[in-house]
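Form 7-S
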Amino acid sequence: MGLQPLATAIEGLLYRSRIVNRIGPLHMFLLVERARLANQAEGITGQLIYLDHSFMEYLEGPAVALDALWRNLRQDPRHYDVELLARFPLAQRRCANWPLMFSSNAYFQQYQMTGFSTVQPGDMDALLEDCLALQQAAAASQSPVDNPVHKNEDISDLSTDRNTVVDFSLLTPARSAH
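Output:
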């Protein structure tokens, strides 16, 4: 029996940003649908959270696809203060059934978007705090050579910073009824 090729390794990426202009429901619907199509073509899945003029997005997929998407996100004129929060290897996908879930305040629920769930105003802060605590714990458990921690610097080669740990249970809010 011959050797089977290894499955493509997948990684997770978490970032946040501020939006330039308020996004109405039609614009948000189009943004999410276009992102879903692009993500599906590249083998990317994830969740976009939109609250208080900010995005927080968790993405997972092949490293090459995440690298290309990250470059595009940093150049997208619709948002600013784009900040990488974490990048890490994954053993399995956490959002396998959705090219992009969308979470926001209950206002968007009336538009019956597929893959939508509501979140509370403090959810992004809680997610960030938990991710930073887990990142610090992971860094403390690794030697400095094995796991360099990058703080407040532009990470041009994201492929080298993959040892961050994230509690994914925080990324999957309860499903809303449709």
